[in-house]
Amino acid sequence: MRRDELDKILGDLHGPAGRPDQTFRHDLEHELLARYSRKYSRRRGLNMLMRNWWTRPVFATLFVMSLGIAACTTPTSYDVELGQQMSIKLPTMDKSFDNQVGGIMSYLDGLPETNAVLATIKESVDGPMALEVAVWGDDLDIVAITEELRERFPVLEAAVIENDPMMGSVETTVAGRLEHALLDGKPHQESLHEITEEMSQELHLRGYDDASDFVLKQTKVGENTFIDLKVVDEDGVLDLHMEGEPTVEYKK
Amino acid sequence: MNLRYAIRDRRHTVLLKAARRGDEKAFRRLYDELYGPLAGYLTRRVNIPQDAEDLISTVFHRFLQNLERYDADRGSVQSWVMTMARHALIDHLRRHRETQPIENLAEVLAGPLNAPLDGLIRTEEADRVRELVRTLPPETREMISLRYGQGLRHREIGNLLGLNEAAVKQRISRALQELRRRANKKTMTGGEVDFATR
Known about the structure:
The structure holds 2 protein chains of 2 kinds.
Chain A: H1 3-14, H2 22-40, H3 46-52, H4 55-70, E1 77-90, H5 96-110, E2 114-123, E3 129-137, H6 142-152, E4 160-171, H7 172-182, H8 188-205, E5 214-221, E6 224-233, E7 236-243
Antiparallel strand pairs in A: 1-3, 1-4, 2-3, 5-6, 6-7
Chain B: H1 3-20, H2 24-45, H3 49-65, H4 77-95, H5 105-110, H6 123-134, H7 138-150, H8 154-161, H9 165-183
Helix pairs in contact in B: 1-2, 2-3, 2-4, 3-4, 6-9, 8-9
């Protein structure tokens, strides 16, 4: 008996036995979610709120990007990573692949780090098939994602999966000008100050007291802006951090 | 370590961190992923279904209560949950010792083995392995159960059982070698089987 055969048998001998009671499982889930909701009601959305701070600058950046790309790069431009472009190529035609694409998309779309997914299928009459997927998101661990895709979708076992980071170029001078226009001519620092004020008000509405419950800090170093929020409540300490020139964010 | 388990553990950590920030979707997904292993572990070791459900509920409520205390440096989310499950199981067995006599705590913790599925090509081979595993010391069986049933690392099993990683690795490795050696014997001989795993 080979080691892998023994491993397989031991896995079977210790695997799930019998079908769990689904009613109990669902009842417990509802009970836990209700408790979770009570426990984290104040915290819920704080992270999203942090991201939403950038809403106004984001619009500026998206617009600037299109101009930046059109105008080619200049010494003052800089790159931002928007996500990953995945190319999945099957060595031969496999009709079952069509049925798997939905599952692959759902899996990628369901990852916590993913903001949006866009896919295109390319196929020849009897030759190889290819799926091109653009995944927008923050800090995508593409190696782990690729491995898990192969685990979850056996049709990809022999597929060649290649990844390339998707980069966008932002031209800072134009960015500054447009941002200035979009924010009604207010200087950047003043606008960020206003956003910080809004955030502070939102925290007060959620029952946090700025004297002891939270610390909101905004700093700007060169082209980068940093906003840190530290919240202390009955559940402990929560640290949120945003940095960089207004983050490029794609909404689903 | 199996890559599947490594990816699972990383995903659990990401979900737990998101749940701490108030992401209900992440908490729900974590529950979905942890329910099967936890329920499997407890229902295999507790004969009364109602008691098993009470324990599953207790562990998940402790999990939620202590969400902020999880430390990724000390092990995976699943091993953390399994530690809570094992403690809850031991408490339960001790509490009910008078009404439901437990002959051997270590035997219960080691857990039962599934019967090989009929019709599989290797049923006979699996039967033989099953009988051989039963002759292992309970603590070694528990290690193998945690390794193959729950996908825990040697270090995590060591933390759970109060042993160091090297000792766990050595015990499991020796047991597997012995299982292979004996399973490969075409004719099984009778008599006492002695596994030198301690």
